[in-house]
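User: Can you write out an input/output pair for a complex, sequences first and structure second?

Assistant: Here is one pair. Inputs:
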Amino acid sequence: MFNTKKALHLLVVMGVLGWAGTAMSQDKVHNYLNDTSLKVKAATSPEQKREILSNSLAEMTRAIDTVKGAPLATDQDRANLDRLQVTLQEKSDELIGANGFDRVPDDQLNAFSTYVVQDMEQADKTITVSLVVALLIIIIIILIV
Amino acid sequence: MTTWYRIIAGVTRTFSFKRGPVGCVALAVLFAACSSTMPPPNDEAVIGGGVTRHSLVFIIHGDGDYLYHNTLGEARRADEDILAQAQAIARKLPNAEVTIFHEIARRHVLFLIPRHDGRAFYYRQGKLLGKTSYWRDQGNSRFAPEADLYAKFADAQATSPVRMFLYFGHELPELNVQGYDASYPDRRVSVGDLAQGLSTFTGANDKFDLVVLGTCFGGTPHTIDALAPYARTIIASPGDLHLSYFDLEPLATLDIKRDDGAVTAFADRFARNAFDRLTRDVQTAVSVVVYDVNATQAFRAAVAEDYDRTLAMANGMPASVSHCDCADDPAYAHSEMSNGLTVLYRAPRFGRMKNDTHHSGWECWNTGDVQHADNPDNAGARP
């Protein structure tokens, strides 16, 4: 119930703010991954670190999967979300050593968590999604967490 | 723009730009937050009669998603950080004029009245002599507002200063696409616009001694070609560039003449410093390349047709296309590929490219036909 109220509040605020809401939504995604990185670095055991990373990447991937199926997502949104999802899946694969990747060693999990954050923070073309899609991603993440 | 918007915009713009009294209305006075200080550019009483030996122009794009996190996990704004660095540099240089343009998101007062979406700062000999805010949608080209302001600011008495231009922002599209400026979602922008902007900054028959392109994927044959008429040396990142950008510290002790080799030596030092800082803090790939415009001309000419063809293909499949090292594509295997380059490259710490040891210095489009070379020792230039 708390999460639903929080999500609805966020929806209203961002809808009112319009484009500013899109920027805030993109910032929320960056901050979500950064928060994950901070939790990984604060965790004391490699098992905890892996679990935090794995859960976070899975949650983001699930959120994107849900949003892709939303009727309001455009074809361009889905294409951009596909690219984002591929990126996240590769991170998950590398974490566990699947799909041709070497498993991330225990002593590199902190650095890997930084890599996940920084890989999203490049001076690349912005991956633009519509405001609605950005909002949906955030809302779903909030509901999941 | 709506009629109401035009009226408000016109009033506030008039107040900000015109030096003499223009019959300001109460509404314009209310928005005096858009005020400017612009002393006459050639007022020697203000500037102390010193000599301008270096001229630096910064354009910092901030109208988009520029949030990043530093190594402590603290949220930062890339454009604000590089702006602060540029201003600090400007205050330290006794023999330079520094003009800084910061392109920001368009905001509104009370959700209705638009505020200026560009800020300009002019320093000479370490002193802030002028600052103003402006609209970014005026003029007949993307960077016309900045070029017009620069023409007002620049020291007309400077005798052949060493001239540098630095751009920081997201990757400038090679195709004319929408979405680069978040506040102008319908506006089409490309690297061609930057080239056109450079032409107005340099004027006829002149070039910047050094152009620094602080964006992702700036080191492509097409982009270097576009900027080549207006630069003698270019520094760019052919691959991804983290939003912490290039460190500007070497500019703080800038003291070079336009002698043979002096600017090139400075460019190499700037690139090395930027590379060292990035590799210290960043886990993703780092590539910083110095391009000698003259020495790279033969290679660029040889591959222009191939590149344009892949660019046209990329335009038709924007969702699935990606970038790659030109060395991965046999079409670019020319003997002059490494000529005129100083390549500094470190692979990402993780990911599929983590074992790559070289980068050719040139970035291309992968339209699906190019397989990444498993042998990391690709055509690569000097380390």
